[in-house]
Amino acid sequence: MQPRVCLFAAYLCTAALLAAQSTGGASQSTGSASQSTGSSSQSTGSSSQSTSTSSSSTSSSADKGLHTYVRRLSVGATLSVVGLSLVKGSSSTTTTTVNSATTTETDLSTSGASSRIGYGLTVQAAITEHFAVAVGGFLRRAGYIESNSQTTTVTTFINAVPQTTTTTTSTRVDVRARLVDVPVTVRWYGKGRHTAGKRWFVEGGGAWRDVENLKSSLSATDASGNNTCCTFNTVQAAHKQARGVVAGAGAQFIDPFGIRVIPEVRYIRWLTPIFDDPTTRTQRNQVEAELTLSF
Questions:
Q1: 0.85 exceeded by pTM
Q2: How far is CA 93 from CA 90, 171, 249, in A?
Q3: Fewer CB within 10 Å of terminal CB in the chain, N or C?
Q4: The domain spanning residue 133 has which CATH number?
């Protein structure tokens, strides 16, 4: 009886030992599978990171390779030459009969004394690929000389013989002023700002003008030929400010140093005259050629 009990106990021990080994192996297998899954996840994450890095590198290279031919914001020095004098000159003659014996003839004439060369700055801001806003500020020198001569003729009769006496008086006014012109235009370029090559543009907008530093001197000559000089600052502008309408066209070229060379032709129709006398008027139709070196 005892040998059977011993054999049965030995059988149970052996079965328990085999079961324990089998469970441990399964656990080890499960752990290995988990480790394998974790390794696979790490490998997938590394692949994703590599793909993301490659994509970022490609995007950065593309951005660096994009060249701008019309800058987002640019400032340039501009030289402007007007085709017509800033102040138009003319002349007029008026004869007045005071009475049957006296007549007065008034000769009024104006000659322009303005500089046709102006200078300033042009600032441009690109809004889209084809549109930009340009604002300029230019200084110009305007002036004129106005002469006023009055000749008085008096006829008297002595013993029925007519005697004529003529006397002349005159004045001369010399006027100088500085004009500040500010055109504001919208430009449309024929090529996008990132497209290589030269390009042309058209523009339209408005302009504002202000007169500064107005100076004048008046000299007079009496009937005896005596000259009196001078009375200063006797002339005032008809309008201190003026508004205008602008239209123009031009082109942009880039030299080997990267400087933008911009020639342009512009027309301004001034709606308000600065000077407005019978023989003295500022030019209403202003045609100008400009050259801008932009950086």
A1: no
A2: 11, 15, 42
A3: N
A4: 2.40.160
pLDDT 10s digits, 281-290 = 999 999 999 9
Count of residues making up the chain: 295
Asked whether residue 45 falls in the same domain as residue 85, the answer is: no
Exposure string for 141-168, b = 16+ CB within 10 A, e = fewer? bbbbbbebbbbbbeeeeeeeeeeeeeee
Q: Are residues 274 and 168 in the same domain?
A: yes
| Most distant CA atoms of the chain, gap in Å | 195
Identity at 163, one-letter amino acid code:
Q
Which residues, at least 6 apart from 110, have a Cβ–Cβ distance to it below 8 Å? 87, 88, 89, 90, 91, 144, 145, 146, 147, 277, 279, 280
- Amino acid sitting at position 286: Q
Q: Six-digit token pair at 276?
A: 């407005």
SS3 5: helix
Of 195, 201, 190, give the one whose Cα is nearest residue 69. 195
In the chain, % of residues over pLDDT 70: 78
Q: What is the DSSP annotation of 128-156?
A: SSSEEEEEEEEEEEEEEEEEEEEEEEEEE
Report d(CA 104, CA 101) in Å as an integer. 10
CA distance 69 to 167: 70
- CA–CA dist 225, 11 (Å, integer): 156
Same domain, 236 and 203: yes
Cβ contact 175:205 at 8 Å: no
